[in-house]
Amino acid sequence: MRFACALATTLSLATSAATAQVVAARPEVSFARDVLPILSDRCFTCHGPDAAARKADLRLDEKGSVFARRDGASIVVAGKPEQSELIHRITASDDDVMPPRDSKQQLSTAEIATLHQWIAEGAEWTEHWAFANPTTITAPKARQATWARNPIDSFVLRKLESVGIPPGTAAAPAALLRRVSLDLTGLPPTPAQLDAFVNDPSDAAYDRIIDNLLASPHYGERMAWPWLEASRYADTDGFQNDPTRTAWPWRDWLVRSLNDNVPFDQFTLQVLAGDQLPSATKEQRLATGFLRNNTHNGEGGRIPEETRIENIFDRTETVGTVWMGMTFECARCHDHKYDPISQSDYYSLFAFFNQTSETGRGRSGGKLPPTMRYVHDKQDRARLAALTTQIDERNKSQRRANRELDRAQTKWETAQQQQLTKSIQSLQPATLGPWLRSIRFEPGKGGPNSMFAEPFVSETTSEIRKGPDWRPAPELAEGEVILFGEGIYTDYFYRTITTASPRRMRISLGSDDAIKVWCNGKLTLQNNTRRGVKADQERAELQLQKGDNYLLIKIINTGGAGGMYFRRVGETVGDLPFDVVRALLAKAPERTDAQRASLQHYYRMEHVDGFATRAQRLQTLRDEQSKLERTALEVSVMDDLPRAKRRATHVLERGDYQQQRNEVSASTPSFLPPLNREPASRLDLARWLVSGKHPLTARVAVNRAWQTLFGRGLVATTEDFGRQGDRPTHPELLDWLANRLVTEGWDLKSLHRLIVSSSTYRQSAATNAAAFATDPDNNLLARSARLRLPAWMLRDQALALSGQLAPTIGGAPVRPYQPDGIWAEATFGTIRYQQGTGEDLYRRSLYVFWRRIIGPTMLFDTQSRQACVVKRSITNTPLHALTTLNETGFVEAARGLATRAWHAAQTPDDRITWLFRAATARRPTNIERQLLTSRLQQCIDHFTADQKAADSLLAVGDTKPDATMQREQLAAFTVIASIVLNLDEVLTRP
Amino acid sequence: MNPLLQHARDLTRRSLLGHGATGLGALGLTGIGSTALETLLRNDPTGCHHAPKAKRIIFLQQNGAPSHIDLFDDKPKLREMHGQQIPNSVVGGRRFSTMTGGQSKRPCLGAIRPLRQRGQSGATVSDLLPYTAAIADDLCFIKSMHTTQVNHAPAITFLMTGSERPGRPSMGAWLSYGLGRSCDDLPTFVAMTSRDKEASCGQIFYDYYWGSGFLPSVHQGVKFRGSGEPVLYLENPPGIDARLRRKMLDDLAALNQQHAERVQDPEIDTRIAQYEMAYQMQTSVPELTDFSDEPEHVLAMYGPDVHRKGSYAYNCLMARRLIERGTRFVQVMHAGWDQHRNLYTQLEIQCRDTDAPSAALVLDLQQRGLLDDTLVIWAGEFGRTPFLQGEIDKGNKGRDHHPYAFTLWMAGGGSKPGSYGATDEFGFSVIENPMTPHDLQATVLHLMGLDHERLTYRFQGRRYRLTDVHGQVVKAVMS
Question: Taking the CA atoms of chain B, what radius of gyration do you get in angstroms?
Fold first, then answer.
């Protein structure tokens, strides 16, 4: 609408200067629509919210300042342009002119006229529309009430009636079915579905179709796309080496959540603060992966804190864009130039995300902490839950108090205690000899794994190690984690242990990576693992004889830094297990729960009939439990630092992590409703966003839903609801939808249903030159929009039409066809693409592995997944045409579609009709069919004459061609199918 | 830009992308679109802000950061003080990458090979670069470049997009947006990458180095590949030859046109043109990559690597062939300059592989009369430390990243041969005429006829520029 208005203004001014007559002849100006955008765009840079950049201490973004008197003049005097300093300055011919002559933002004559007229008409001043809560509006009554199916239509119709344009005609049923199927599931309707709806295109039938589409598991897959783009989801980190991450359990969570229609307020709480919800479930914690989907720069030489801060910038701005439709990025370095977001506001929002244990360091053991362990397989998850319950119950029953038994146990404990105290007091601690160390860089016969098995010293003999290979290692301090150099090598550690009497010694160990321990030549511990070193990763029990004993430890480092940890836990004699000894030696009231349990367990095992069998059964369950838990994936999620370790948040000068300025606490921007919590958590922030009192959240959410279904939001600048953003084309409709979203419990499926049920949505997309010229952007919604399908939907559509689409939902990403060398070239050969096989080639595009530094090559003009993007962007370049014409998957899909057409009908004409209709949802016209039939015949002749060409074409892709078809027939139909798949009509949502 | 104009331009671009006269004429599909609008797109009135001196750019980006000290910025003082600690007053507590950030010894390291005065302009060039030295009088050396970024990816991103974080449009994308499409059958903006044969460093090429950021992706650089098909999916599937493809496209156009008459959506015209351009690209790219029409003496000038697809020399010659055929911006990126530990071995190899092709490109353009309006830029993302990384008596030593000073050169396209700017006697800090990547970008846009402050795109409520809120046009480096 702004387009049309501005155009009108320009035209009137072209004929005459801003004379009073012309001004009076024009429609009244609206402050919000006409004036504020000018002030914002031309004046706010120097006279706006940014205090540091403000000139002459003058603000034109606040009413008080605009109407105040200063230096004997008023900037604006309502109704009196000639007395308003604003007008004097913008029309001055001397150096006082505003904007200054050297400014790149000059006012046009039309804009000057608008400001003049605004003041003449009384200088109405209102707050920016999006910062005030949506007003409660009832749907208007329009004259053509029969056209309106629901309130959306009433709003749209009223606007159309106000400009005297009738609504468009209804789309043909088949076109509507294709549209709504693609919009809600990203997949085309089947020929049978088309038949059914064409035979019964009633509202009731349409309602049933919507029910089915909304209930389809493909609904969540389709609606996940905008979320993946908004959450900058990818399967790798980006940056150097582009390491792979395990983010896909979050992607599957997203699809489930959308399919389950989790209300948007709950969804918000989960993705922003699922970990902070009371007794958070694993699923809720997994949801916070949303905030961890950002890129991560682990480049060598990179300063971790810089990375950590940049990651938080990214989270802050993503939340600002996705929930508030505001552009916070500017305020990272200075107060926002246009919107009332100060730099301090920015860092107050930043503070909500500044309390995780993320360090900004590179990967550790393949993970980006904080992570959670998550069992992805649904059945395994269910089994684990059942196991946990069973184990709890059995455990409880085993530990149930029994007065008689417990009294006997106490007696037994006292006796054992006395005996132990006596023998332990007479026990002189063993002497640990100095460490000797020998590092071996021999590569081993088959890399690190064979190094684990292969001896580089005599590992099982117990004699003392000597010779130049062994050197003293004073660097190994008792009970401290010691780090070693980087590389792939075998590290041996050796010491003697001398005791006065036979006994058992327990030691605690840590290693990076694999570890083996021998005592007196006997293998006591082995764990062929890959990990970073920590204290107490392993326990081992050494059987010591009187005199000298020999301890040998072997650690294999498989890359990066190495490390080890050693600590003596204790020594004992007799048969009692160590845990029991320690529990007995502790005073009864000071025993831990674990110690009490271990004592009770040991006693009952020895003294209660049948207890051992029951314990064995419990152990079996526990083994199963840990086996399942070992299948768990490590997924990056959000967490909180312990209270004592919370970080202070500072304003960062120009966004530089090193330049800390004043401290701020977590809070929300002051131009929005107050949060009223101190200290406030991420959960508080999430609750504030979905309180229903926030002016932006619901509007921004319904606008994105509108964009998904109409190709453009009611506010075209989906990412910017601020003063520089576009105004809504239908402000009242936007507010009505926003209010409805809140009152209907943030139900997104209900919102989608309402929109696709409307007559507005069900209009035809056809237009004519006159209508197009009047409203090229379709601001009035007097027709439907033809939208080129996003590349992912083009691929999914082709797969569906080919009959090859694999319906599997979720799981690890897949690798379909990709030309050779794409990854290798981007990574200098360090990462190579391993193409999948079988079903993996035919899964939906949602599941295609997304390497952040070079996305899937057949998905052209998709978002780069570097940062949050909420706006649809579709372009057309010749490269896109090359993809849909030549890419292996598309060519194979054409053959699949051709094969289906062959079997679905009997004559060339019927087959072409079937094929054409499957792809376009309509029958071809006679001319179209004749054109294709004649091409088909030519192709059959061509491929009959050139069988080699036919064979080559049929060999594209992994699927074997249908052997029941003649090869020249199949090749010729494949050509026809490829033409049809490239029709503008097929590439476009009708 | 006025939003109204931007809107009109977007609309024009959108509906008229690719109305190449040849293709549509050949198809007999006349009457689609409007000639007037096409003219608007071609000679975009808001395109140039002033008369351009350059019409095309070849940006030879030396990825990994070549050592300014060893190649161009002669510092006798460093040779004098070789092995002695660089004075603290010079270093001034500035930060380095974590690789030498903790190193307390910072001994001066003189240039590893002699630098000499070359030609009349007074420029100094190392013996390692004999071919570049020979054309020194045609080059504009800027010795006072400095940047804010100390790691490769952010510094390259800054140099190419004006911001250290990924997501902004690159220089070539801005030019495509500002000046429109430059040819029908080849991309307006092409990127090519190569690396040293020794694979001495692990820098990788991110596609946002030639990305379109928030600009429509039609402005994004098209990556020409070093192996396989030069352009993805360029070749017809096996079994479909050019004649059959032509017929398929004729059918498609006819069917699309019929549909256009029914629904009256101008986007369908775009689609027809888009497929026609794809066909033209299929025919012109093989011709482009076929060097058999190059005279032997020209091939010889680029050196033996010119025959190796995907090498720097090959890409340099490709760059010339591309701009000859209408491509406006060619971004050639070559990795292998990151000599932390192998300065004494790798620098020489790296120079040998790149020196002749870079100089040959300038000469070749000159001989064809193209250098006058083609700007060639040779630049790393930062320099290398005047002090040493590693230990002076060991072999595996080199120089760390140095954002505080580096040298680049330009040739042709309105640049002014000579030397501009200077560093202190250690080559550590810029002391005369400092120039940032934003200044370079402003200057390059100016040479292309664009005012960097007026070439803006509205995104997220803000007018974005290649130069953010910075950048000065440096008149002194222009002829």
Answer: 24
